[in-house]
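Late entry, written up from scratch paper. The run itself happened at the end of the previous shift, but nothing got recorded in the book at the time, so transcribing now.
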Amino acid sequence: MNDYVGTQLRGWDAATFRTASGDPTMRSTVVAMTLVEKAPDWDRFLARMQRLTLCVPTLRMRPLYGLFGFSAPRLAVDPDFDISVHLRRYRIVEGGGWADLLEDARRMSLTDFDPNRPLWEAALVEGLPGGAAALLLKLHHSIADGQATVMMGLTLFEFSAESDPNELPAPEAPPAEDVSLREISTANLVDLARRGVGLVESAAKGLGALARGSVSDPVGIWGEAWSTVTSIGRVAAVPESALSPVLVGRGTTYRFAAFSMPFSGIRAAAKAEDMSVNDAFLAAVATGMDAYHRRHGVVVEQLRVNVPISLRGDAGDRSGKAANAVSIARFPLSIAGLTTREHMEQAHLLVDEWREEPAIRLADPLAEVSWFVPVPMLAHAAQASDLTTSNVPGPPMPLYLAGERVTAVYPLVATIGAAVNITMVTYDGRAYIGISADDRAVQDLPDLVSDLREGFSKVTGDTPTTGPAAAGS
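Output as recorded:
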């Protein structure tokens, strides 16, 4: 078989690509908006970007499609890879600032990728107030989750303004050649056959273990099997609809907002209750969403929330690669009538329950099954969620981009079917919160942001600040 046909997208990655391609409401992009004190030297910046694509080969890989679109695309090195196609520089509109930068990030996020080129693009935006600049890095969610994006950043950025003479050299450019449709389709068939054999072997091993266990420990082995089956039912269950009477409607566009605050406040609030940072984060989000619904004259007991569960560090994970290594927990989260501690306790309990679900680590096999589910059905299931939240730990020390200090990193993630996405990334002592809100579901984004800021303030005692002026302070 031709060595240049690459590898096929599998599991969660393949399902993400398929749904994003098949339904515009499921557009699946991640935009990392990085602010720097000054515009970096272009040649040095370009060299860092080139190095990134060599250290993270996925950024040089294009999708390859077989006959009839029956199989997931393959990722293979693009023989015509040209970084200038993916990377550009421009100046913000004269007199422009924070709002214009967010609008540019929004337009970038809403623009589809070229389906025949590597699934990323970037822009260096110069001319921001005070001589600052921004890097907008857009990735397809099928090739990177939030933590993988942070890992890419650690390859791109440096720990000082001066180049590190001890930095390991970048690998050579990976070899690439053109491949024919016949070769792609043949490789897909070979992969399909191998997976079929693997499934048969796994089933045989499972049945053998079940048979042996039925003799030595029938109660234990059948109890474990039943636990896995019922767990799959819970994890794969499709809710009928979202729970909010306010966040109604789903469209093909969304808007971004963002704010930041000292990370010490969130960490201290969590420590005071003997909880995790993620518990405090979810408590702040729930408090803000409760206030937003009350602003609309309704008290909503629960919202249906998606929370990514990282599988990095588990056996068989791909934590060394720029890829997805997550499963999604989906549960009703109570938002009304709870104290801050009760919000945290609830979040802690719910996330822990999902982490213990046997099926949570079957995310990839379950996603493989979704290939046989029509995309409209998958989109309907995604739209039954009100909110997606994600908390991504970032580097605690200052970083530099081509010699210039990074002052802020904002995560801007597509809504992917939910009404609102709220993602937090921590960097150099601050927490940066990015918000995306479906235009149909949220027609008063400033009010939503105000209520979320108040929610974080109530939980942490700190006042969130909006805009790059607060970054790094």
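DSSP finds 13 helices and 15 strands in the chain.
(Scratch paper discarded after transcription.)
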